[in-house]
Write a structure and sequence with these properties.
alpha+beta; Aldehyde Oxidoreductase, domain 4; seven-stranded mixed beta sheet; about 20% strand; globular; binds dioxothiomolybdenum(VI) ion
Length: about 750
């Protein structure tokens, strides 16, 4: 299928098929709960039916009558665990709400008991028979609920450090020729990865093995060890394949240490497979947000003032927030900028990362507002963005390492046929269908983190790459194998990659779209160490320095330049000269500007992401432009989205096939987020109502008949050795706004609250 494997342009790798494709489609890929355990017991969770209050009493008589019940663990008899610290505050956890610690209830669906039995069915049956009496208090569910408290987010979470400001916003806004003030809202969403939030724990003496889908095996290993009070070297996390994560597996959830401790006490391996609805409350999610945008512009469209105020919901104890103003204040040139982010505390489980956490809600607001401003200015929205395109970070004045935003707009506009749009709302139709064209920008910070790798080369070219990275479905095995094959000059089919195991050299969290840049940079560096050794063996010593320089990729853009500048290395000859059977190297790579404690933190499973606007002397983002066609039925108000066209520039594209797949997935997710996805909350009980995949709407193929992905050639020598910008979280960012902008064009109605459904069209 040529459509599925676009040919590479300049500075792109080969579109080789996925390394793990056959294993996945034949069922040979083993996910965490597929791992065979020796004589396991099965756990089933009992979760709270109230959101706030306390447990008065359990009744177990009925439950204990189920044949095969081994144990029922509650706060009254649970093994003691140490408290955990939030991921974003230097710890490992996605929540500090620790279940089974006391009778107190912090949110609906909190784990309150674990039933262990000889079979899954027995554990489930017994769990359903556990009776719980509570003293319930009235919970606060979300914005505007009685009892919520609001506070500025600044300083409450190390993840959110600033409310960017520059110039004098108030004065400039006051004096602006054209002004816009608009408010926007985004809903609660749950990532719902296909693989459930399972965990299996098996002890061998005082060593623990955890099989669990994780985006961060080193984080999970260290976090569980800390909670159990044991040495991290005694814990191993294994997950060669992850059934989706989307952020929800980036931080440790309380379930793992609980199951590990019960397995230890019972002296038996335990497998836990929670249900889909339990996944809504035992893991993290995207919290609802509110925004107020103020834009001031001159009549010719130049932005003179921009203010973005955001509010987000979090749990009572944890100040989680995504703070997307760090991006929205830096996307366009504007001399007077102000921003503020606040957190509203409600009786909810702690939210966390979900696919482009800051950019999805915050760019929905900004990119919708820009479209509204374009209407006020009677200007093409693409031209408005061109007029305000930035070459420098408007807050800190640092230059973008590369920025192809307008090139993306131009390519996507051409492919989409934007010039055929008649700008007036309601001016295009086809029978009963009003047609709308809309567009928006997308961007995502380029992140990197320290990573290690071990590479072993044999005389016959067989290569083994070991790195505790994660295959969350993005193509990580594939691009790592490609990197090693290219750098060592061995055929791709001779490269074996081992990932998803905390006994391998540490790699960072598969989050913030940093994996490819980080892991491939580490693998590249270690392959170059091997090349050095081999070259030394076959080269006369006098020319060594020159040759080594020429061949081992001091140059920043590796694979292309390696292919061009390197002389071929005769591996067999080098091995014979060395007189060895295997050459193996281990190395640790860190991005430019990484903190001093980076490598120690890497081994300890602590996150040290560098990138975006936090780079020294520069700012690095990937960019894109998205164009959509919507059709809104005049009579039923049904909304369809027949065409999504996105053009993206993200530095070196390591593999156009896997990259396209991610970008396509992003566009589809973006459409889903605009028109379908939302977790409904029952305000009275602070409870998620549609906590299943029948009622939580996600698109099927018929919802996305036309998705076109264009990847631009972009070379960036200032970001990392492989020259790649993360793109996993790039494509779903602008889509919400593009669709609402198209709905405005189709209907003349500006909808500022997601998702947009037929009942929202008047
Ligand atoms: Mo992504 S939400 O950073 O896993």
């Amino acid at each position: 299928m040529t459509a599925a494997a676009p040919g590479p342009k300049t500075n792109m790798g080969q579109p080789v098929p996925r390394y793990d494709a056959a294993a996945k489609v034949t069922g040979r890929a083993t996910y965490a709960s597929d791992m065979p355990l020796d004589n396991p017991a099965y756990a089933f969770l009992v979760t709270s039916a109230i959101a706030k209050g306390r447990i008065d009493r359990f009744e177990f008589d009925d439950a204990k009558r189920v044949r095969g019940v081994i144990d029922i663990v509650t706060h009254e008899n649970a093994p003691k665990l140490k408290d955990s610290k939030l991921f974003s505050n230097g710890g490992y956890a996605g929540t500090t709400i620790q279940p089974l610690k006391s009778a107190e209830i912090a949110h609906d669906g909190q784990i309150i008991a674990v039933v262990v039995a000889e079979s899954y069915e027995a554990a489930r049956e017994a769990a359903n028979r556990v009776k719980v009496s509570y003293t319930a208090a009235a919970p606060s569910a979300t914005f505007d609920s009685p009892g919520t408290t609001t506070a500025a987010a600044k300083g409450q979470s190390s993840q959110f450090k600033e409310d960017p400001k520059i110039g004098d916003f108030a004065k400039a806004f006051d004096a602006a020729e054209v002004k816009l003030i608009a408010s926007y809202e985004t809903p609660t969403q749950h990532p719902n990865p296909m693989e459930l939030f399972t965990t299996s724990c098996a002890w061998m003496g005082d060593h623990l093995v955890i099989y669990e889908g994780s985006q961060y095996v080193y984080g999970l290993k260290n976090g569980v060890a800390e909670q159990l009070g044991i040495d991290a070297d005694k814990v191993r996390v294994v997950n060669p394949y992850v059934g989706g994560g989307f952020g929800s597996r980036g931080s440790m959830t309380p379930r793992t240490a609980i199951i590990a401790a019960i397995a230890k006490r019972l002296n038996r391996p335990i497998k836990l497979v929670p249900t889909r609805d339990q996944g809504f409350t035992i893991a993290t999610y995207r919290a609802e947000t509110r925004h107020e945008i103020k834009l001031g512009a001159s009549r010719d469209g130049k932005l003179v003032a921009l203010r973005h105020e955001g509010a987000e919901v979090s749990s009572r104890p944890d100040a989680y927030c995504v703070g997307g103003t760090k991006t929205t204040t830096r996307l366009y040139a504007c001399p007077n900028v102000d921003s503020l982010v606040s957190i509203v505390r409600a009786d909810r489980n702690t939210p966390g990362f979900m696919r482009s956490p800051p950019e999805v809600p915050y760019l929905f607001a900004l990119e919708s507002a820009l479209d509204e401003l374009a209407v006020k200015l009677n200007m093409d929205p693409v031209e408005l963005r061109r007029i305000n395109d930035a070459t420098r970070d408007p807050i800190d004045g640092k230059p973008y390492t590369s920025r192809s935003l307008m090139a993306c707009f131009d390519e996507a506009a051409r492919a989409f046929g934007w010039s055929q749009r008649s700008p007036q709302p309601k001016s295009m139709s086809d029978g009963d269908w009003l047609i709308g064209y809309g567009c928006a920008a997308t961007c995502y910070p380029t992140a990197m983190a320290p990573s290690a790798a071990r590479v072993r080369l044999q005389r016959d070219g067989r290569t083994r790459v070991e790195i505790a990275g994660h295959e969350i479905g993005t193509g990580a095995y594939t691009v790592i194998a490609q990197t090693a094959a290219e750098r060592l000059g061995v055929p791709l089919e001779k490269v074996a990659v081992f990932m998803g195991d905390s006994d391998l050299p540490p790699a960072p969290v598969a989050g913030g779209s940093n994996s490819t840049a980080s892991t491939c940079s580490a693998v590249m560096m270690v392959c170059d160490q091997i090349r050095q050794r081999l070259l030394k063996a076959v080269m006369p010593s006098d020319s060594l320095a020159d040759k080594a320089k020429e061949t081992v990729g001091i140059s920043p853009a590796p694979s292309t330049q390696a292919a061009k500048g390197d002389r071929p290395l005769d591996i067999e000859k080098a091995f014979d000269a060395l007189g060895v059977g295997v050459v193996e190297e281990y190395g640790e790579w860190k991005p430019e500007g990484a903190p001093m404690d980076s490598f120690r933190a890497m081994h300890n499973g602590q996150v040290r992401l560098v990138g975006g606007h936090q780079m020294k002397d520069k700012i690095a983002y990937a960019f894109g432009a998205e164009f959509v066609e919507v059709r809104v039925n005049r009579f039923t108000h049904e909304i369809r989205c027949p065409r999504l066209v996105g053009a993206f520039a993200a530095g070196r594209i390591m593999n156009p096939r896997t990259a396209r797949s991610q970008l396509m997935g992003g566009l589809i997710w973006g459409m889903s987020s605009a028109l379908l996805e939302a977790t409904e909350i029952d305000d009275r009980y602070a409870r998620y109502v549609n906590d299943n995949l029948a009622d939580y709407l996600v698109p099927v193929n018929a919802d996305v008949p036309g998705v076109e992905v264009i990847m631009l050639s972009e070379q960036d020598d200032h970001i990392n050795p492989v020259g790649a910008k993360g793109l996993g979280e790039l494509a779903n960012v602008g889509t919400n706004a593009a669709i609402c902008n198209a709905i405005y064009h189709a209907t003349g109605q500006r909808i500022r609250k997601l998702p947009v459904r037929l009942e929202n069209i008047e």
